[in-house]
Specification:
Elements (H helix, E strand, L loop, with lengths): L11 H28 L3 H5 L11 H8 L7 E7 L5 E8 L2 E8 L5 E2 L4 E2 L4 E2 H9 L32
Antiparallel strand pairs: 1-2, 2-3, 3-4, 5-6
Length: 163
């Protein structure tokens, strides 16, 4: 009966090596699962979904969020910011108007300017200029003192209070 039986002799080092390989394999698998789940965290942006369908902020809710930070706040307008994940809130406090930004989870706000890095443009200032633009054609000039050419291309309107 010439059959040979092969026995594998395992020593302690072989057993430890197998355990370490299993741990490494398990760690790599868990790491891969974590990385793949992070990739889907911002999936709505790439799928073209409108964030305003899921995230809403009313004027009264915004006023409640900001009342302890900005005294006498009156919310004039709310819209989605050009920075994803934020609302742009146009407000008035103490007779001054301004913009602040609140994140979608409603946990943070920042009152500073929003600047586009690529264009080097102050988006907050551009938006404030747009919101505070005055329609000159609506100013009544019935009692005004008109000087110069009335058909001039550029007009200057000066307001004074002699009292």
């Amino acid at each position: 009966m010439g059959g040979k039986i092969n026995y594998r002799v395992c020593n302690r080092q072989d057993i430890m090596l197998e355990k370490n390989m299993l741990r490494t394999l398990l760690f790599n698998f868990l790491l891969l699962i974590c990385i793949l789940s992070i990739g889907n965290a911002y999936g709505f942006e790439t799928r073209g979904q409108d964030c305003s369908k899921c995230h809403v902020l009313s004027n009264s809710e915004a006023a409640d969020l900001l009342k302890n930070i900005i005294p006498g706040v009156v919310i004039l307008d709310i819209r989605l910011s050009s920075a994803k994940g934020f609302w742009e809130i146009y407000l008035e406090s103490g007779g001054k108007k301004g913009l602040v930004y609140v994140d979608f989870p409603k946990k943070h706000f920042f009152p500073g300017p929003l600047i586009s890095i690529a264009d080097r443009r102050n988006l907050s200032q551009e938006r404030l200029t747009e919101l505070n633009k005055v329609d000159v054609s609506q100013i009544p000039l019935d009692d005004a003192l008109l000087l110069g050419d009335q058909m001039a291309r550029i007009r200057v309107i000066v307001f004074t209070d002699p009292d």
